[in-house]
Design goal:
Blueprint lengths: L2 H5 L12 H10 L3 E5 L3 H10 L3 E4 L3 H6 L9 H14 L4 E5 L9 H15 L3 E3 L5 H11 L4 E6 L5 H4 L8 H17 L3 E5 L3 H10 L4 E4 L7 E4 L1 H5 L16 H17 L11
Parallel strand pairs: 1-2, 1-8, 2-3, 3-4, 4-5, 5-6, 6-7, 7-8
Helix pairs in contact: 3-5, 5-6, 6-7, 7-9, 9-10
Bound molecules: 3-methyl-2-oxobutanoic acid.
The site of 3-methyl-2-oxobutanoic acid has 12 residues, from strand 6.
Length: 278
């Protein structure tokens, strides 16, 4: 394989695993990239085989897998548990793990300790946390300590009790604040910034302003990368998907149909047949 092909994100057969520096190189070349959530080993093996460069073990595990109403109740232990499973299935992918609510808000030291546990006990490559201000300081200290840091601005679901699930940055003041927050995270050393539920034009301005890649979710088409919650993409969510989440397949129906077929064959004495018996 030529070195161009080896570095092409669309080339499935890679000669080396994705590295964080590849994301900035892709931005510099104007190549869009994808990030998806995963919370378990089999899913991680699929994303890794397809060649998705970044897997996010999001705290959205709370409302997509564990059955919580939001991401707020997710614990550091739960993040460690799910991240370990994903890392074991994704040797070629950059695995980013979310710091859950309550594991970094009290002070930077606690955030550092939580980040160290997430990386040390799981083998993930980077941590992500929501917000700026003190979180920019957490980003700076994390990077100084050797922990790559991904930012997350706009709709920050851990603050749902304060801001709801609403588009952010619609008025001038909050748009300016978002731009300043993005600059502060980049300056602190964040290697990428998720922009969630912000107007496309603002996401474009932030994307053009920053050297590090932006990764949009509900932020329009101009960000450097796009992320979706895999359960929304697959039609596996139990809650209504947000408007920005495109549903590529209705896996809930596929699974329900398979389960109904099994149930009917058991009831009718067709399963197990000779092929599935010893
Ligand atoms: O937890 C998560 O899935 C996220 C994405 C929405 C970016 O943070």
């Amino acid at each position: 394989m030529s070195s161009d092909a080896a570095n092409d994100p669309a080339t499935r057969e890679r000669t080396r695993p994705y590295a964080i520096r590849d994301l900035q190189a892709m931005k510099a070349r104007g190549e869009r990239f994808s990030m998806l959530t995963a919370y378990d080993h089999p899913t991680a093996t699929i994303l890794d085989a397809v060649g998705i460069p970044v897997i996010l073990v999001g705290d959205s595990v709370g409302d997509n897998v564990i059955g919580y109403d939001s991401t707020v109740p997710v614990t550091l232990e739960e993040m460690i548990h799910h991240t370990r499973a994903v890392v074991r299935g994704a040797p070629n992918t950059i695995v980013v793990a979310d710091l859950p609510f309550g594991s970094y808000q009290v002070d930077v030291e606690e955030g550092l300790r939580s980040g160290i546990r997430l990386l040390k006990e799981t083998g993930a490559n980077a941590i992500k946390a929501e917000g700026a201000g003190p979180v920019a300081e957490l980003a700076r200290r994390s990077v100084e300590m050797g922990m790559p840091f991904m930012g997350h601005l706009g709709l920050t679901p851990q603050s749902v009790n304060q801001i709801g699930y609403r588009v952010q940055g619609r008025d001038d003041a909050s748009a300016r604040r978002l731009m300043e927050d993005a600059r502060s995270l980049e300056e602190a050393g964040a290697f990428a910034i998720v922009l969630e539920a912000v107007p496309s034009a603002l996401a474009q301005e932030i994307t053009e302003e920053l050297v590090v890649p932006t990764i949009g979710i509900g932020a329009g088409p101009h960000t450097d990368g796009q992320v979706l919650v895999l359960h929304d993409l697959l039609g596996l969510s139990t809650r209504p998907a947000p408007r920005f989440a495109k549903n590529y397949v209705d896996l809930r129906s596929v699974i329900a149909d398979a389960v109904k077929s099994f149930q009917a064959e058991v009831a009718g004495g067709e399963f197990p047949d000779a092929d599935h018996s010893y």
